[in-house]
Specification:
heterodimer; A: 41 residues; mainly beta; two-stranded antiparallel ribbon; 0% helix; B: 133 residues; alpha+beta; two-stranded parallel ribbon; two-stranded antiparallel sheet; 4 strands; globular
Chain lengths: 41, 133
């Protein structure tokens, strides 16, 4: 791991179906590509 | 959405693509349905995750750039139409690749509203990390 590597703090996130999960759930099985969108519309 | 067309390639690498949007769960669900998005989506109307990842906001100059006008016309021609935007229109996008230890392996902070990495760049980064892991 290089000095630039940053570990993501896990947190609860709200999903589109109104459920909540841990963000870490998405990187348990493989790499996560987390894409932040612009506004909808 | 370019990522949607590459969904199979991400799956084959064992990668999970997750989108984060600025709307409520209801708005996010509507967006996901409208564009037939095959990925999970996080609803972040308070921008807590955007702030945690230090994503930027567009300047007025970038927001009103010719590039944005071209993107808008292009979207219209492809039948996406124009609706009232939901969320902060100045919020810039970004992409992160996080490994199975929760470590950020790639980060991309957009410099303008229309700026984003090509899916092939993301796929190549994942392949390279898997090779060196």
């Amino acid at each position: 791991m290089s000095r630039d590597d940053i570990k993501v703090k896990d947190r609860d996130v709200l999903l589109w179906d109104n459920t909540t999960t841990h963000l870490s759930r998405f990187w348990q099985e493989g790499p996560l590509v987390l894409v932040f969108l612009r506004h909808y519309g | 959405m370019q990522l949607r067309r590459k969904a199979k390639a991400f799956r084959e690498l064992g990668a999970q693509v997750v989108l984060v949007g600025l709307g409520t769960p209801e708005e996010t669900a509507a967006f996901r349905k409208r564009y037939a998005i095959p990925f999970p989506m996080i609803a972040d109307p308070e921008k807590a995750l955007y702030k945690a990842f230090h994503l930027k906001q567009a300047s007025a100059a970038a927001f009103l750039s010719p590039g944005m006008a071209v993107k808008g016309v292009s979207a219209l021609l492809r039948g996406y139409g124009i609706g009232l935007p939901t969320g902060d229109v100045r919020q810039l996008p970004g992409v992160f690749i996080i490994d199975t230890h929760g470590v950020i392996r790639y980060r991309y902070f957009a410099e303008g509203p229309a700026d984003h990495p090509a899916p092939d760049v993301l796929l190549e980064k994942i392949r390279a990390d898997l090779t060196t892991a």
